[in-house]
Design brief:
single chain, alpha/beta, Rossmann fold, 7-stranded parallel β-sheet, 6-stranded parallel β-sheet, 11 helices, 35% helix, globular
Length: 344
């Protein structure tokens, strides 16, 4: 039996975590021995995890000593599991992995266009040390290269999405609320969201947490916006109402899970006109290059949010490559080849 350990920042929080939870469950269903190792403390995800779950319990922004204690827990778990392969996701798991002195087959997953954005030098060192371990790289989108040398990944494997039951209502009527879903960080650009809402004088629902949360709360308060902050929600789509409009003003993206899940649910949206989102080839009305375009597009169609919904045929085409069976077939092929090529 192939023994795979998947290492993530936390068991919930973003596209990387959601996609790995889905993958872990499918590999488990196919008879793999799968362990999911979550380094940081977090609430449960919308996806119920079927395989063995190890939660190290590190608190975000822990200091050096507590982080070292978390690494010791991580090391002990890995050495006890003795996996045939590690699937490593995002900065902190990469950092923890370079200090494993026993040999392991390693596949790292590039989820972002700008990994290690706030710790560039450390990131370069970590990536160099990973290269010495003969790490293979998977990119979750064909627009991604492997930082910092812009290398081609060994394989591109899209993130899977979980099948859902269609919403019980259709989005229609005047736009009565703007919705933001995602981490409150520079990448997701919640500041632009608040400024757009202020210009349109519309109430907002902000779903998510992050380092910029206090700043966003202060901006909304100063602009006298009717703002509801609900923090992390396991299933944010359950809070959507038929007169809502989702805005995704990201500066850059990896795979763009929020957009993909919104398409899956028929949610009306306007998103940043960035290369990462252009690959979806939506209608012109769904893209905005800047805050003024967000404001102008919404102002023109303020009485009819359904014009921002995506044609079902287009949605089916986008989602057709996200089927978990197809995605897991690709992962199985890569896992088998990696283990066979690098017998330890």
């Amino acid at each position: 039996m192939i023994n795979v350990a998947i290492v993530v920042n936390s068991k919930s929080g973003g596209g990387a975590e959601r996609s790995m939870n889905i993958l872990a469950n499918e590999l488990f269903n196919r008879g793999y021995k799968v362990s999911l190792i979550a380094i940081n403390e977090s609430p449960p995800d919308f996806i119920s995890i079927k395989c063995q779950l190890f939660e190290i319990g590190r608190v975000w922004n822990d200091g050096l000593f507590l982080t070292f204690k978390s690494w010791l827990k991580f090391k002990n778990i890995i050495y006890k599991l003795k996996p045939n392969l590690l699937i490593v996701n995002c900065d902190l798991p990469e950092f923890f992995t370079i200090f494993l002195f026993k040999k392991f087959n390693i596949i790292c997953v590039e989820h972002s266009q700008y990994p290690w954005r706030t710790r560039i030098l450390l990131g370069k060192i970590v990536r160099y040390l990973l290269s010495l371990k003969k790490t293979k790289w998977v990119a979750v989108s064909d627009h991604l290269t492997i930082w910092p040398k812009n290398l081609a990944p060994n394989k591109v494997i899209l993130n899977a999405v979980k099948d859902i039951v269609k919403p019980q209502f259709q989005f229609s009527g005047p736009i009565k609320r703007l919705v933001f879903i995602g981490r409150l960080t520079f990448q997701k650009n919640p500041q632009a969201f608040v400024r757009v809402a202020s210009a349109l004088k519309l109430p907002v629902l902000i779903i998510g947490e992050g380092t910029d949360m206090s700043k966003i709360f202060e901006m909304a308060s100063e602009a006298k916006i009717d703002a509801e902050f609900v923090g992390f929600v396991k299933n944010p789509w359950s809070l959507m109402q038929k007169n809502d409009l989702l805005l995704v003003p990201s500066v850059y993206e990896g795979d763009g899970l929020v957009v993909i899940e919104a398409l899956q649910r028929g949610v009306p949206l306007v998103i940043s006109d960035i290369p990462e989102f252009q690959r979806f080839e939506l209608q012109k009305i769904n893209y905005a290059k800047n805050e003024k375009e967000f404001i102008d597009l919404i102002s023109l169609e303020i009485l009819n949010n359904s014009v921002f919904c995506i044609d079902q045929n287009k949605t089916r085409k986008i989602l057709s490559d996200r089927n978990i069976q197809i995605i897991c077939d690709s992962w199985e092929n890569l896992v088998g080849n990696t283990i066979n090529q690098n017998r330890i």
